[in-house]
Amino acid sequence: MRMPSVKYQIGDTVMGRWPGSSLYYQVKVLSFDAKSQLYTVIYKDGTELELKEQDIKSASGFRSRSRSRSRSPARRRSRSRSPARTTRRSSSRTAAAVAAAAITESAPSSRKDLKLKDMPEVRLDPLKPTKPVENNSNNRHESQEENDTANKVNESEAKVEAEPEKNQGRYNLRRRKDDGDAKAAEVKPQQLEEEARPAAPAAASTTPLDFGGRLGAYFWLLFLPAWVFFLVLQVNLEDPSLANFPPPLPPLDTFFDAQALGVVLLWILFQALLYILPVGKLSEGMPLRSGERLNYRTNGFFAIVVSGVAVAAAVHLGVDLAYIHSHFLQLAVASLLVSFLLSVYLYARSRYTAPDQLALGGNSGNVLYDFFKGRELNPRIKNFDLKFFCEMRPGLIGWCVINFAMALAEMQQQGLEAPSHAMILVNLFQLLYVVDGLWNEEAILTTMDLMHDGFGFMLAFGDLVWVPFTYTLQAYYLVSHPNPLGLPALVAIVAIKLLGFYIFRKSNSQKNNFRRNPSDPRLAHLKTIPTATGKSLLVSGWWGVVRHPNYLGDLTMALAWSLPCGFSHLLPWYYMIYFIILLVHRDSRDMSDCRRKYGSAWDEYCRTVRYRIIPGVY
Predict the structure, then answer these.
(1) What is the pLDDT of residues 154-184, one digit of tens each?
(2) Are residues 66 and 185 in the same domain?
(3) Which has the closest alpha carbon to 232: 409, 561, 579, 477?
(4) Residue 71's domain is classified under what CATH number?
(5) What is the pTM of this model?
(6) Domain limits at 47?
(7) Could you report the per-residue pLDDT of 265-298, keeping only the tens digit for each?
(8) Residues 504 and 543 occupy one common structural domain
(9) Which of 100, 302, 407, 506 could cross-link 462 (Cys pair, CB 3.0–4.6 Å)?
């Protein structure tokens, strides 16, 4: 949008004076506040300031003057030859990702208004001269030649007089997500006598703690396994009403079974073998902070087809798949043990991982919090990506196998020749969901889990225990609690499922295509809001209706999964209730991250797309 009434327009690349100095750096204009007469600009390292018009100069005019060596007497000596130098220290880490549970995080505001005359300390990132703003704003590694050239420009521009602090007005400093919490550095008067040399920016090591911080991590480490066991024991009761809480505990020696552990390990090894086979395409992941893009073997659809054939062959050969129903608790305990040992390995190896390979989330310095959250972003054994494998293979495909086993167990217990209509719907609905995810496996490479979250206990437990042993509760419930469905109910439930699936798939496809190729001609009709990072925010299509249309589709499908179980008990509605909490929490995390990342562009996006998940409601 053009603003002809002001001197500099949104998107212009200009030279902005650094507060308290005579040094100018290349910046991009983000917005203009007519009331305060301040321009919001962004530097290459991501720092946003609000500057007065007299602190901004045309980039072209600035460069032409800097080439001139005129010694005009009109040139006045700057009162301040250098900015106060700041010292950056990495602060304690604090950050985000959900796999097994959902807790609302509280993230600090990314905007802090500071008046330089009132504060002895300022929280700034040392800056370096930059290339035009079109370059990726996350690239902090400019060449020495660029630094030398820009320093010469600043020195030649020393004629610009630095105003006393009382006349400098207000500078609004906005922290960026990638900058972390830099400790404030005290501005000492004697530092103003030294020559200005922008320090090299330190790498961020942490983002705000989430999930309740350190105490929250302790709580979830204990609560999540206990909750899974409660659900498994409760759903197995003849009357699974919550009025019968707590469920009776079986003898302790029945919790662990060596054969169940062997079944779990064999299943994981079988899926690992399918994963490493040279079948399917190699997909390129999203750019990391280092600029590197990892390759992933996306052959998940092949894996579930082969797994289905193997399970069918096992049943044909006489394997009693109903073993899964009768040993459900033991299998859950075995999976918990595997996920815990995997998490210990992941934490131990992360201690020897390069800092740029760590996630901005699990590097707080607190052992239990980092163990829970996950420190390393992409742990790999050669080309075997542990996080990607666990996200998409053993638990997700195991979910479908468990559902099928529950259908066989229902036939045995109820003396049926075929599964009930309710059981068939639950199996088909959830199988479609998993198959769709594996068919579009490449799309997960643009999700929060893969791009931002470290791999630790939270994701390992979520992938190997939470998904296969809580998402199957509807099928487990129907084994002992049949719910006959009439034709009208069947039609209505199928219609709800198809509607939710359509919203989910179309919106996710649109998002994934846009993230991978914003210039795709098929997306040319979509409206966007540009951001200072070089990315754009969708404000039309599915993403112009609500901010998370994929969540709306997910919740609609969750409703269809629960309806076949009827309304006699709350337990089979657990997934629906849990998913509401999960997605609202994810939305909260996403809001905080995007506000830190996109600044004023995100505020404009929220004004354009008002509702988060449900149009007209929330």
Answers:
(1) 444 433 333 333 333 333 444 333 443 433 3
(2) yes
(3) 477
(4) 2.30.30.140
(5) 0.64
(6) 13-193
(7) 999 999 999 999 999 889 988 888 777 889 999 9
(8) yes
(9) 100
